Amino acid sequence: MIKYISGIIPRLFTKLSVPPGNITYTRTTSQKFVTMAKNVKIGTHDGTFHCDETLACFMLKTLPRYKDAVIVRSRNMNILNTCDIVIDVGGEYNPSKHRYDHHMRDFNESMSTVIKKPGYDSTIKLSSAGLIYCHFGHEIIKHLIPQANDSDVELIFKYIYNTFVKEVDGIDNGVPMFNEEPVYRISTDLSSRVKFLNPAWNSKDINVDSQFLKAVELTGQELVQRINYAANVWLPARSIVQEAIDKRFEVDPSGEIIVLLQFVPWSQHLYAIEREQNVQPPLKFVIFRNNGNYRVQGVPIRPNSFVCRLFLPKPWGGLCNEELANVSGIKDVIFVHSERFIGSHLTREGAITMARKALELGKAI
């Protein structure tokens, strides 16, 4: 298992100096503040800050070449032109010059256009967070999780984009989630929490640069938590599902039944692996241990659906114990849900027998 990331936030962002027009971070062990002349400079706009550029700043500062960088907040192009990298301002997207703005009228970049590889198919317009993630995300993940191999980095990269960065991109660019007006608004998302850190219209003696740093730390904490989850929870679960799929023909010659070594959230991984590896025939039943017994669950036709590709037999629905054993002809069977998407047996082999019989009866109809 990949080691849990710890100490990233306090190590990178523990002390603050705010000279005119820029921000710099130093470690608590140092009593000297670095100056703009001696440091790499990250440029972004001043004034009201948003989730995308604060997250982008954090991502850059996780990398060794940017960890001691000065963050310069300005809209003055003479100042921004002195920066080594500029994000969310400047009217230019040019990776060769490290210019990453997305506000231009003709800007229509998405993950699919920046990373021209199979599997990188999101068409959501990128914000500065998405741009920095697309160009530096693989490197960031590899730096934070050096034990991860290239395949793991690819999987984590896609997971973090789809479950975290894409939301930031969509909100910042005003991409609607759906066509109809929502019946309520969400105001507790990360972008909203960053927005609330900006000084209020009637606030007094609030240092906007200090508030900006709080936003960088907030977005950074969220990113590190997500990467930790992906590396230590989500990815190991995928490995268990992958192993079960690899061994499916050892369970049953049909290849339509898998047995998990232990219970993990499996549906998301199952669909992804089926799609990526063209698993044929499609899987019908998943068996896993739960509370000392073995569950047989039908694979839904799509995530979060209770409509299965193949249900357990109709005569079994709603029965349990001896009554179910008499109808099914399977000893030590425990129950089948009335909707027939899941059932249970005392033993692993018994659960496999349930799934095999369900396949046989289902294909005979």
From TrEMBL:
Pfam families: MYG1_exonuc
Top-level division of the source organism's lineage: Eukaryota
A GO CC annotation given for this chain: nucleus
Family: Belongs to the MYG1 family.
Name recorded for this polypeptide: UPF0160 protein MYG1, mitochondrial isoform X1
Organism, scientific name: Bombus impatiens (Bumblebee)
Highest classification ranks of the organism: Eukaryota, Metazoa, Ecdysozoa, Arthropoda, Hexapoda
Gene transcribed to yield this protein: LOC100746029
